[in-house]
Amino acid sequence: MEFYQVRARLSLLQRHFEQAESIYLDENAVSEMLDIYRSLYKWDALLQLAEAKRLPEVDSLKKEYYTWLMQTQQEDKAAEVLTCSTLLQLDATLDAL
Fold first, then answer.
1. Which of 15, 42, 45, 55 has its Cα between 20 and 30 A from that of 8?
2. CA angle, 50 as apex, 3 and 77 as ends, to 5°?
3. pLDDT tens, 65-92?
4. Is the dihedral of CA 89, 68, 75, 15 positive or negative?
5. Considering the entire predicted model, what is its pTM?
6. How far apart are alpha carbons 75 and 77 in whole angstroms?
7. Cβ(15)–Cβ(27) below 8 Å
């Protein structure tokens, strides 16, 4: 394990998620931080990071989040995510016109 990973994991143990994210991003280890957020079920942070980094897999991550919400019977949150995603797609379509 590299030194930055040790520092980041210590931050995670202290529940300093933003600090851990900063450490991973300083090392250009975006996918590692996404995996950590996924394992902690911190989907909002995961999607925010993916969107900020303009990753091509943002849509597939949103689908994965929606599926997880449905599997865990969080239909209200799933509807919110679906509505938000639909509105963003509609906004992007209108901007393209």
1. 55
2. 120
3. 888 888 888 877 777 777 766 645 645 5
4. negative
5. 0.77
6. 6
7. no
